[in-house]
Design a protein that fits this description.
single chain, 52 strands, about 45% strand, mainly beta, Immunoglobulin-like, about 725 residues, about 5% helix, nine-stranded mixed beta sheet
């Protein structure tokens, strides 16, 4: 249904919750950590509804959920718009009845509507847009039988106006026109949200697509005001705001109290002294140069979540130049919504900017923190059916520190299994791989550039190409008779450079079609940490590092969910079963892998979206590597023998385990780099890091020069 009330699903989103030492929230209220066996996110019985000919809804029998089937009667609710105080008839822009699980029933551009809904408790909303934005809110409406509600625009006796202040205390200068590509002034976005519902009310922003005359006539000109019936007695409504100033400085803030003594006369503002400057370092991936981007543009977004970790709103801006990012979060108590801002590079620009996205950032008590989320991961879907739940795992979150460069690491690969049941011939396949860097940054360019092939019995049956071809291959295979075999899906990510070294991730997912369980396990997160618990891939000695991993065997469960006016939809949730894990390391470029001992910590099991947690120490690493860099190989195996094996190169560096000397850059050095060439004495041998002979003008990277019985490392 087309509406001005937006349920926003951002391209990606981040949330804030618990981290160690209490720096964020207590996670116990929103995570379900188990110990053994299958772990389920929520344990609730839900009515699964389907319309019948008698005005009732019945749930179809769907697998394990059939025992929860009940019959639910639909009852009519009529909403009537009365004439205003001048006796003029009014027509609402929208009238909606919204349940707390996000299901909604509504109509647009009507004066009277009758909506058939199940018995229960709802939020009723009526919006008017002519002459300014007016929204009436009627929470906690109990529907026990047929009922009628009468509303009038004159009920909107309160006016709430956002008066945001940018860093330094200056007020925001709004545009004189909001027509696309014709805005005067700043690019801004403001929203009015309800903390308890999946509801987001759009205030004003550049994307309103009005001409100057339309803006003048509509009352939206230079206005960030909402007229409403709410007051300080039901203050579960909040403002969010983000903007890009004329000088490419980005400000984002979140205001937690709409209309109380703190904000007299309905003027809502923020404390500009709480702004924190945020300057994340984000390295470009190789595709940046291949695409000829030629700029260091960035994208900045703000996402707002309710206490249930459900996405309420999102918005942002991007610029061909780097932003100066300022964040002003005024977080409330546990009952209030919360906000995260995040920054990404611009590595690809094909209609939409795509880059490396740093984890969500939040400012609190004068400090900045990063929160690790499973954005875009279907395994993070809640049992209630919400696809906008983004829980944060505190064990992969950390405080902001100088020297952290997102994107300058290799990536772990997250894969998933999908049943396509809407096809004439249902089929299964391994869907597209996602990639995360060591600090939890999402490597979206890698998703775009990765390639894949399908192998059966050692034979390549689908040549290496775009990952999307797997879908077409699986669909065609479902329409032919074929034996049940072990099928391997191999994903290649070569869009990686770490400290000038060409890197890669090769991920092989193998499933046995003959088994009832055809869900392969997956690694969900890999983070190498130093003694302080901060993410890094560079260590002075083995004892300085440890490895943390999350993952498991995720099993899909499907059921039907009532969405309201849009009817029944097929929804899903996931449980996580145990999986065996094996972690190995090897000097970079070699196949001489040695197993690392890791242990599972049941107390850190986390759902949805992460699964089991394993940890190990690098004190076990005792082999040398020519340049100090090592590869990792991680293999997960479930009870049915399905596997995911991925090789990550280069994964980490240990300075004390480098087996060659660094070249000395002084006047006496006989081995040096000049103008992109390796200068060495006659008879010297030059090898790449894998031991292959190289010319004196090789590609950028690390090389070993051997001369006079001595090996010297050269970085080009």
């Amino acid at each position: 249904m087309k509406r001005l009330i937006f349920i926003v699903a951002a391209l990606m989103a981040f949330t804030v919750n618990a981290a160690t030492d209490g720096m964020l929230r207590n996670s116990d209220s929103w995570s379900n950590r188990g110990s053994d066996g299958i772990k389920v996110y929520y344990a609730v019985n839900r009515c699964l509804l389907k319309n019948d000919d008698n005005g009732k809804r019945n749930a179809p029998a769907v697998g394990s959920r059939a025992e929860n089937v009940t019959e639910v009667e639909l009852v009519p609710v009529t909403i009537k718009v009365q004439p205003d105080k001048n006796g003029e008839n009014q027509r609402a822009f929208s009238m909606d009845i919204i349940r707390n699980d996000g299901a909604s029933w509504g109509e647009m551009f009507e004066s009277n509507v009758t909506l058939n809904v199940p018995k229960g408790e709802y939020l009723v909303e009526v919006m008017f847009v002519d002459g300014g934005l007016s929204v009436l809110f009627f929470p906690d409406v109990k529907v026990d039988g047929p009922m009628e509600l009468t509303v009038n625009r004159d009920m909107a006796t309160n006016s709430l106006t956002a008066d945001p202040l940018i860093p330094g205390g200056a007020r925001v200068v709004l545009p004189e026109a909001v027509e696309e590509d014709n805005a005067i002034g700043e690019n801004y976005n403001t929203r009015f949200v309800n903390a308890e519902m999946y509801v987001c009310y759009k205030g004003v922003n550049k994307g309103t697509y009005m001409t100057e005359g339309e803006v003048e006539n509509s009352g939206w000109r230079n206005e960030m005001t909402i007229h409403t019936n709410i007051n300080d007695g039901n203050a579960s409504f909040f403002w969010t705001f983000n903007m890009l100033t004329k000088d490419d400085k980005y400000a984002a803030f979140f205001i937690t109290a709409p209309c109380d003594a703190t904000y007299p006369d309905g003027i809502i503002s923020n404390d500009y002294t709480k702004y924190l400057k945020f300057e994340p370092e984000i390295a470009h991936t190789p595709v940046y140069d291949e695409m000829g981007m030629g700029n260091d543009g960035q994208r900045v977004m703000l996402s707002v979540f309710n206490p249930k970790d459900e996405l309420l709103s999102g918005g942002g801006s991007y610029s061909p130049q780097p932003f100066e990012v300022y964040i002003c979060n005024e977080l409330g108590d546990a009952a209030a919504p919360y906000a995260l801002s995040f920054v990404s590079s611009l590595d690809i620009l094909r209609g939409m900017p795509v880059g490396v996205i740093a984890p969500g950032a939040v400012g609190k008590d004068g400090k900045m923190f990063f929160a690790s989320t499973q954005d875009g991961n279907s395994y993070a879907t809640s049992l209630a059916g919400s696809e906008n739940v983004y829980p944060v795992n505190p064990d992969f979150s950390f405080p902001y520190f100088q020297g952290l460069e997102f994107g300058n690491t290799s990536a772990c690969c997250v894969t998933g299994h999908q049943l396509i049941d809407w096809s004439d011939t249902p089929f299964e396949y391994i869907f597209i791989a996602n990639y995360y860097g060591n600090a939890g940054e999402r490597r979206n360019p890698d998703v775009r550039t990765a390639t894949a092939e399908v192998v059966i019995g050692g034979e390549v049956v689908l040549p290496r190409g775009a990952t999307g071809a797997i879908y077409d291959w699986a669909e065609q295979r479902s329409q032919t008779e074929h034996p049940k075999e072990k099928v391997s899906y191999v994903f290649y990510d070569e869009n990686i450079i770490v400290d000038g070294i060409k890197g890669y991730n090769i991920c092989n997912v193998t499933v046995d079609e003959g088994k009832e369980d055809r869900d392969a396990p997956t690694l969900e997160r890999l983070m190498l940490k130093n003694r302080d618990g901060n993410p890094t891939v560079r260590f002075a000695s083995p004892a300085d590092g440890k490895i943390a991993l999350a993952g498991g065997d995720f099993v899909r469960h499907q059921y039907m969910r009532d969405t309201g006016s849009d009817g029944m939809v097929s929804s899903e949730y996931y449980t996580c079963s145990p999986a065996d894990i094996k972690v190995e390391y090897a000097p970079r470029g070699s196949e001489e892998f040695t197993e690392l001992t890791i242990e599972e910590d049941p107390a850190k099991f986390f759902m949805p979206g992460y699964g089991a947690y394993w940890e190990g120490s690098f004190s076990q690493v005792d082999r040398e590597s020519p340049d100090g860099w090592f590869d990792l190989r991680v293999t997960l195996t479930d009870a049915s023998g399905n596997t995911q094996e991925q090789t990550i190169s280069p994964a980490f560096r240990v300075e004390s385990l480098s087996s060659v000397e660094d070249a000395v850059a002084d006047k006496d050095a006989c081995i040096r780099v000049e103008n992109g060439r390796i200068i060495a004495p006659s008879g010297a041998e030059i090898y790449d890091i894998c031991g292959r002979p190289a010319s004196s003008v090789p590609a950028p990277g690390i090389y070993i020069v051997r001369h006079a019985g001595k090996s010297v490392k050269v970085i080009l």
